[in-house]
Amino acid sequence: MRRKLVAGNWKMNGSRAALAELDAIGAAAAAHPGVDVAVAVPATLIALAAERAPALPVGAQDIHFNDAGAHTGCVSAAMVKEAGARFTIVGHSERRGDQGETSQDVWAKAAAARRHGLDVILCVGETEAEREAGRAARVVQAQIEKSVPDDAAPDWFTLAYEPRWAIGTGRTPTMDEIAEVHAIARAKLRSLVGTAADGIRILYGGSVTGANAAEILGTPDVDGALVGGASLTAAKFVPIIDAAG
User: Fold this and answer.
1) Nearest-CA neighbor of 223 among 144, 154, 120?
2) Over pLDDT 70: what percentage of the chain?
3) Residues 6+ apart with CB under 8 A from 176
4) Which residue out of 21, 92, 94, 130 is catalytically annotated?
5) pTM of the full predicted structure?
6) What's phi and psi for 119, nearest 5 deg?
7) Half-sphere exposure (CA, 13 Å, Cβ side) for 55?
8) How does pLDDT run across 111-150, given as a tens digit for each residue?
């Protein structure tokens, strides 16, 4: 049975003072021992967050696929791990869209994370135009095909489906649409990694709130949530953790 995972992504938000939110988030995680809770913070806060909340897995929001080199402004898997990160997000829709990352880039980043012992949350999802054209399933399948490492396994790899048009907009697909894509994603994973796919968690991401979390988390093949804006404060994030429990 797959444990629920509720992962927060602070994106380009947060400060030293904001880390106080981790106290209540960590307490909520402790109150729900059957749920895994994690938070990806900006690179500048990883070490401070890991020190403040040692029981809460802290992660990076992105890494470079090279271990070192002339890549100004980038951070490597080894760097974020040394800072205290236990996992990294790769392939987030905002990286794919705003920074033009390809699925090959995402594959290489996931491989780099694996080399350095980091867990991975790998994101896939369609744009609004792709959904309206009836291509959502095809896009997600292609991204999984090209992004997921061949050795993906439940002990270190998680997939997140996040339709790009639902990120930060307050809009979400219907529960039937979420269930349909998650089932398609699960089937595609099976074709790539075999029976290991049955243990890999697939999260939903995109305007998840305390108000809709219970319904989303109760949808077939949804093993948790990747939460953006609502993870910035305990007041909004804890209800989602509660819904998972």
Assistant:
1) 154
2) 100
3) none
4) 92
5) 0.97
6) -70, 160
7) 12
8) 999 999 999 999 999 999 999 999 999 999 999 999 999 9
Q: Is 92 a catalytic residue?
A: yes
d(CA 112, CA 124): 18
Contact 202, 221 (CB under 8 A): yes
Burial class (CB in 10 A: 0-12, 13-18, 19+), 195: exposed
Q: Give residue-wise pLDDT tens across range 18-47.
A: 999 999 999 999 999 999 999 999 999 999
Q: Which two tokens stand for residue 188?
A: 């595609």
User: Hey, how many other C-beta atoms are within 10 angstroms of the C-beta on 31?
Assistant: 12
Q: Which two tokens stand for residue 101?
A: 């990352």
CB 13 within 8 A of CB 232: yes
Catalytic residue among 94, 130, 162, 182: 162
User: How many Cβ atoms from other residues are within 10 Å of residue 98's Cβ?
Assistant: 9
Sorted by sequence, the CB contacts under 8 Å of residue 131 that are 6+ apart come out as: 163, 165
Q: Are 59 and 88 in contact (CB under 8 A)?
A: yes
What does DSSP assign to residue 64? -
CB 160 within 8 A of CB 205: yes
Q: Any idea what DSSP says for residue 3?
A: P
Q: Would the pLDDT of 168 be above 90?
A: no
Per-residue pLDDT at 90 exceeds 90: yes
**Residue whose C-alpha is closest to residue 203's, from 14, 17, 34, 38:** 38
